[in-house]
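Narrative progress, year one. The postdoctoral researcher (J.K.) led the effort to move from monomer predictions toward full complexes, under supervision of the PI. The following entry was the first complex the group processed end to end, covering 612 residues in total.
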Amino acid sequence: MTEIVDWVAVDWGTSNLRAWGIGPNGAVVFEKTSPKGMGKLARADFPAALTELLDEVSSARSGPLEVLICGMAGARQGWLEAPYLEAPTDLRGLLDGAVRPEMPDARIAPAILPGVCQKAGADNVMRGEETQLLGLAALTAGFSGVVCMPGTHSKWAQLSGTRIEHFSTAMTGEMFEVLRTHSVLRHSFDGDLDGPARADGFAAGAAAGLEHPEQLLGTLFQVRAGSLLSGRQPDWCAGYLSGLLIGTEIGSNRHLIGQQAVPLIGSPALCALYAQVLGMIGASGEARDATEIVLAGLKAARSFVA
Amino acid sequence: MTEIVDWVAVDWGTSNLRAWGIGPNGAVVFEKTSPKGMGKLARADFPAALTELLDEVSSARSGPLEVLICGMAGARQGWLEAPYLEAPTDLRGLLDGAVRPEMPDARIAPAILPGVCQKAGADNVMRGEETQLLGLAALTAGFSGVVCMPGTHSKWAQLSGTRIEHFSTAMTGEMFEVLRTHSVLRHSFDGDLDGPARADGFAAGAAAGLEHPEQLLGTLFQVRAGSLLSGRQPDWCAGYLSGLLIGTEIGSNRHLIGQQAVPLIGSPALCALYAQVLGMIGASGEARDATEIVLAGLKAARSFVA
């Protein structure tokens, strides 16, 4: 593959590391994945992890190989901290904010994109999602509106073209996990969580969350009471908890959503659940391919150098 | 103490077991405590735990010693399940719903009071709090209004005299513990949690929770972002999380509270925090002595046999 790789796009998350070789015409010429996510590496381990992944590619070239990285590699506990841009900001400025860690091997020239923060009484941070948002803007000319990125820490961003106006983070996915694993509700999840009653539980929980997002602390306990009193089975309870949390999240963002078609960036299964709940309030969700989005974001970040 | 004990009142919770000997004139003639709470006992261990606590007292009497028990001993996973009364209901019926477990030693005659449940789409359960509510009614003639019982699972009950009309449970205390221990927020609590900034953090969190109880899933993440961006210290973060959860709980019950003086039954430290937040919305909290309340409840339950 000598000289057909122009540069390498990298998404370096907490759990994984993904790299795509980009040819001169912008096409992906290879894809490589490694389990060496930020969460598993000490600071000194990052150069070797990248070299290992790209050794063959960089050896075959005459000049240094440009590697553009987004995600948690730029966190304080990552490879080299890439200071946040502060929202509101134009995401075309991402590359200007990049940091360039030193490599023992000069054949690889990495740059890590910054995350975005928000202050002024609404403290918030993102790392990785800003590149996806830029990718969405690049792929969806003229888009303006709210974008939802469901996950452990769901992000909701208001985008105007390539400009991020405001964003928030909902601890929905993590809340599901800690409650399922560590709270009194765990007694209601002792069995098959993916049985046939899960869909009914999800719909009931979502309706409750949408109707009364302010009642979450109280409605949660009804999961336990429902299994004690009404014989609710583990699959129904798991669906209810999932629906209640997603319904609460979407219900609390209703003023931003209106009747919009909300782009969804995340795992296909999770995006389908969010689309279902968005449909319950007369809006809709449009699941986007997360890999395509992050690649478009890294390409766009690279093209917008000031 | 021969014959001066008329009967024994017992509060058998998850963590502890407390017993009070009641003399013929209603005065407490002894108090005994044991760490043998329901959570530490197998079903077969309950008779011995009670005998051990009351052996000396029962041996000194000629007839069987009546022991009236409230709390988790009557749960399904406890000694002997005492079926729930269903709200709305008059708490003077508690003794009618009591179950009488067999004892190997006939000198002790225990009766376990039922809990209260609620169905019809607002599934909920309580065990032990119903006896406290009856005690509150007995000590506060003519009381009608909302009562708050702060704790791991806070109860909010609407009481009309001895009648419980409706109640809810907020997982506030447990949420604090699971988030502090198991979520990403734990990184913000690495240090002294009881430092001087805790009070400021509490006030800020309570204000945020009261203003936007529907935003809990989002505001929670600001604890983490605040320590990353604004250098918030662990004491401030712990105060903020506590205030945010209590503010959210009280904010979600605002329609029930109005400008009332709300009786608070719980630990003095927790009741003081709830009273502070109730004051922020123009209501007030009146901390009651929880031991006095549960004793009054057991006495009242015993006096109202049909």
